[in-house]
């Protein structure tokens, strides 16, 4: 296995009784990379990350985190921050006590007040966890994950339940860690977060990878779409396409060239292109397509 990888997963399988949640999953995350692991509900993303985080044993396969087994918690946990969907903080501890406790357990060192400021929880430092709102608990999850500036940061649906201001603050803190060389692994249902930030993306469906690559590489696997309507009596357009509810739909891997050709034809024919829409393939188009693969 490569020493340049922060995470290496080979033929990982995770089972819950008879249910096969993760099936022969293999991927690598390079050191310093922002990697997004996306997929449909029940695709196996969280199960895979729980194995990477050392919270769940694999049924079979090999996983290495920062060159070690994730089960070697004494070696891995001081270098890794984890924000999973369920944290399990003690309801009787205060916010500041919770952050300090995680720091002690993981053997990471930081200033608790500084970290609470990053997470927007300074005013809630003395508040018991049981009195926090759902969004505040997610911010506490984030505070404990980034405590100590870990080399590897795993974020499982980090912005769920957060308002816009809290999301912006979270990403500012993540960007700072990334600038300092940390490796980031993200799962999210907000596809724009992955599209804007990830170096590479792995798309999971039914327990395994269907596609992996940069946003450009993934979106180039599907055609762009030009759609428009023509007035009655107009000639047929110069390229083939489907007709849906009276509108033309043209799929193309040469969007700029075909759009230029279509506009030139409309000008020469003296006809209008009504309700014209054209745009490149988006990540959500690719995401929807994998369910039909």
Q: How are the elements arranged and paired?
A:
Layout (H helix, E strand, L loop, with lengths): L4 E12 L2 E12 L3 E6 L5 H8 L7 E6 L7 H4 L3 E4 L11 H12 L5 H7 L15 H13 L5 E5 L7 H16 L3 E5 L3 H7 L2 E6 L2 E6 L1 H5 L4 E6 L12 E3 L2 E6 L2 H15 L4 E6 L3 H8 L3
Parallel strand pairs: 3-7, 3-8, 5-6, 6-7
Antiparallel strand pairs: 1-2, 1-4, 8-9, 10-12, 10-13, 11-12
3D architecture notes:
The protein has helices spanning 45-52, 73-76, 95-106, 112-118, 134-146, 164-179, 191-197, 215-219, 255-269, 283-290; strands at 5-16, 19-30, 34-39, 60-65, 80-83, 152-156, 183-187, 200-205, 208-213, 224-229, 242-244, 247-252, 274-279. It has 293 residues and is an alpha/beta fold. The chain folds into two domains: 31-47 and 70-213, P-loop containing nucleotide triphosphate hydrolases (Rossmann fold); 219-292. The chain has a six-stranded mixed sheet, with helices on both faces. Strands 11-12-10-13 form a four-stranded antiparallel sheet. Helix 3 (95-106) crosses helix 4 (112-118). It is elongated and about 75 Å long. This is ABC transporter ATP-binding protein. Pfam families: ABC_tran.
For this structure, what is the CATH homologous superfamily of the largest domain? P-loop containing nucleotide triphosphate hydrolases
Number of domains: 2
Largest sheet: 6 strands, mixed
What spatial order of strands do you see in the largest sheet? Answer: 5-6-7-3-8-9
Average predicted local confidence, pLDDT: 90
Name of the CATH architecture of the largest domain: 3-Layer(aba) Sandwich
Radius of gyration: 24 Å
State the share of residues found in helices, binned by percent.
Answer: 25-40%
End-to-end separation in angstroms reads 30 Å
Unreliable stretches (pLDDT < 50, length at least 5) are none
């Amino acid at each position: 296995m490569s020493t340049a990888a922060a995470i290496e997963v080979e033929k990982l399988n995770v089972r819950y009784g008879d249910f096969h949640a993760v099936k022969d999953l293999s991927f690598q995350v390079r050191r310093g990379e922002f990697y997004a692991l996306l997929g449909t509900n029940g695709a196996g993303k969280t199960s895979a990350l729980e194995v990477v985080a050392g919270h769940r044993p694999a049924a079979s396969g090999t996983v290495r985190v920062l060159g070690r087994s994730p089960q070697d918690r004494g070696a891995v946990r001081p270098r890794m921050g984890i924000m999973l969907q369920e944290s399990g903080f003690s309801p009787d501890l205060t916010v500041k006590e919770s952050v300090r406790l995680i720091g002690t357990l993981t053997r990471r060192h930081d200033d608790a007040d500084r970290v609470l400021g990053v997470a927007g929880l300074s005013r809630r430092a003395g508040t018991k966890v049981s009195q926090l709102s759902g969004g505040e608990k997610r911010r506490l999850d984030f505070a404990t994950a980034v405590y100590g500036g870990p080399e590897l940061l795993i974020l499982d649906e980090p912005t769920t339940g957060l308002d816009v201001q809290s999301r912006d603050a979270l990403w500012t803190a993540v960007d700072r860690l990334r600038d300092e060389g940390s490796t980031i692994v993200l799962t999210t249902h907000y596809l724009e977060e992955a599209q804007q930030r990830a170096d590479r993306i792995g798309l999971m469906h039914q327990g395994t990878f269907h596609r992996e690559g940069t946003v450009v590489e993934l979106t180039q696997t599907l055609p762009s779409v030009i759609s428009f309507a023509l007035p009655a009596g107009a000639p047929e357009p110069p390229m083939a396409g489907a007709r849906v509810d009276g509108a033309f739909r043209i799929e193309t891997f040469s969007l700029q060239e075909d759009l230029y050709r279509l506009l030139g034809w409309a000008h020469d024919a003296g006809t209008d292109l009504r309700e014209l829409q054209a745009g490149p393939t988006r990540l959500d188009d690719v995401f929807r397509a994998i369910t039909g693969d």
